[in-house]
Design a protein that fits this description.
The complex is a heterodimer of chains A (265) and B (267). Chain A has ten helices and no strands. Chain A is mainly alpha-helical. The chains are: A mainly alpha (265), B alpha/beta (267). The interface between A and B is medium-sized, with 13 and 22 residues.
């Protein structure tokens, strides 16, 4: 009995120590990344390449998910607003919820699914195949050459993707509200224009830039420290690291979402 | 105070751990300029760990490592950078970047560390590809190359800056005999043509005997012997003879410990 309790306490202790170590590594990774911002040669070409991967190639997914998200929230709001006879507020409700909240969060979730997981797996495989050792031996700074361009590309791309998500979401709301349920298009558009203020747009931009930063930071770090954090080597280790990266970045993203909302509202 | 090093590589009293496990136990190593030194040993003997220490990829528990006069354990980042630009490393799997073509991979060090124009870089890349018998492969992706080609491409990248010191991890591992011999020839050619010092880590006997000026044999993290090919072949050390003649180890099993391992899972 005593042995069982002792081993349980030991296991809890070990897991806690692992989590603290892992958090420490994320901090070290972030520090190393930020310290490279001032390095002389800015990796312009690499950044453009990653804007293409993170941004341009995610556009179709963002447009489709934006459209359907807009349609479904318009449907939900329509069903609620019609009970109170306030259906003319539909445009404002759809736009407000998209620009402030759903746009940044849903776009970030799409980026996590498409870019975060791929980035973590790619960096994990690079670690497994000694490519970071090769970079060190060639005197090429891994943080500056591999990580920084991805991070900057995400900070630029995610707000733009969010803006596209918002526009297509509002369009989806228009289809459901105006074209299907017959809400006046004037009420839909003018209500939206009257309600949305600069602060709402700013909140969306700040959130999405922060989400882009957070997603790439977590996903790159989890791949980079694969050899230290994962007990299994090879494909299984990459798979575990990717799962952890996706879950952690999604949870942290929602936490940061709450913090930013509470500070800006 | 540390005394001035003699050879291009000088290792003294190197001790290294992975967690609680002691991997290298007081290793001394000296490699002279222009020499081809082969570091041999079975799996788990510590040869890859030793290589990683020579490359300053790991920090030792204790001991000193001088590479080309630089104390790689205690040196600053700038000095280490300069040393690394004079050193080439060819990894076991090639370690080429899968998102780049073979040519882009090979050009990378030149693009990052020199101000040469693109045309000159292209010519230098093709020269190295010719040397490695990879002419015409520069636009292929690494995934389109065979194992031997990947190693040669990795070697081309390692020598693109004309280093004075080349490290090669397991050049023959996983290759067919003909490709393995070709790589051995290539290593000899590189040393003779470019006057390089080459450190090769391998467990392939044939390859080691063909290219080595001197061989260092590691067993369980300790150097068993360092000597010329003949000295190694004539060694009376049973472990060396087992290694050379591919004889299995005759380890006596302690019955008590064996039962303990089976029942508790601990040593």
């Amino acid at each position: 009995m005593l042995t069982a309790i002792k081993s349980t306490i030991e296991r809890i202790g070990e897991r806690t120590a692992d989590q603290v170590e892992s958090a420490g590594r994320l901090g070290v990774f972030l520090f190393n990344l930020v310290s490279r911002l001032g390095m002389f040669r800015f990796p312009f070409t690499e950044t453009l390449k990653h804007i293409q991967f993170i941004g341009a190639r995610t556009v179709p997914l963002i447009l489709i998910s934006g459209l359907f998200t807009g349609m479904v929230i318009a449907l939900q709001f329509y069903d609620t607003l019609i009970r109170f006879g306030s259906v003319e507020l539909l445009g404002a409700a759809v736009a407000m919820s998209l620009i402030r909240e759903l746009g940044p969060v849903m776009a970030a979730l799409m980026v996590i699914a498409r870019v975060g997981s791929a980035t973590c797996a790619e960096i994990g495989i690079m670690r497994n195949e000694q490519q970071f050792d090769a970079l060190d031996c060639m005197d090429i700074d891994s943080y500056h050459y591999v990580m920084l361009p991805r991070l900057i590309a995400a900070i630029i791309s995610v707000p733009l993707l969010t803006a596209m998500f918002d526009v297509f979401g509002i369009g989806g709301g228009y289809i459901v509200g105006v074209l299907i349920h017959g809400v006046s298009d004037g009420a839909y558009l003018i209500g939206m224009a009257d309600t949305i203020v600069w602060n709402d747009v700013l909140m969306g931009i700040i959130k999405s830039a922060l989400f882009g930063f957070l997603i790439l930071w977590i996903c790159m770090a989890k791949g980079f420290f694969l050899h230290v954090e994962q007990k299994q080597a090879g494909a299984e280790g990459v798979s575990h690291a990717t799962t952890q990266a996706v879950v952690l970045s999604a949870v942290l993203m929602l936490f940061v979402d709450y913090i930013v909302s509470s500070l800006m509202l | 105070m540390t005394s001035a090093p003699q050879g291009i590589i000088e290792v003294k009293g190197l001790v290294s751990h992975y967690g609680k496990r002691k991997i290298l136990k007081n290793v001394d190593l000296s490699v002279q300029k222009g020499e081809i030194r082969v570091i041999m040993g079975g799996s788990g003997s510590g040869k890859s760990t030793l290589l990683n220490h020579l490359l300053a990829l790991l920090k030792p528990t204790s001991g000193s490592i001088f590479v080309d006069g630089v104390d790689v354990v205690n040196t600053d980042r700038k000095t280490l950078s300069k040393l690394r630009q004079k050193t080439g490393v060819a990894f076991q799997s090639g370690a080429l970047f899968s998102s780049m073509t073979v040519g882009e991979n090979i050009k990378l060090p030149l693009k990052r560390h020199t101000r040469l124009d693109d045309h000159t870089i292209d010519i230098m890349t093709r020269l190295k590809l010719e040397l490695m018998n990879l002419a015409g492969f520069e636009d292929l992706m690494p995934s389109e190359l065979s194992g031997g080609m990947l190693k040669r491409a990795g070697l081309a990248r390692a020598v693109i800056m004309d280093p004075k010191l080349l490290f090669f991890d397991e050049p023959s591992a996983g290759l067919d005999p003909v490709t393995a011999v070709e790589l051995d020839e290539l290593i000899l050619k590189l040393r003779d043509a470019m006057n390089m010092t080459v450190v090769v880590v391998t467990h392939e006997l044939e390859s080691a005997f063909k290219i080595a000026d001197k061989i260092t044999v590691l067993f369980d993290g300790e150097i068993a012997i360092t000597g010329t090919v003949d000295e190694i072949k004539n060694s009376r050390d049973e472990r060396i003879q087992n290694l050379i003649n591919r004889r299995p180890r005759n380890e006596t099993v302690d019955a008590e410990q064996y039962i303990k391992r089976l029942t508790t899972g601990k040593n």
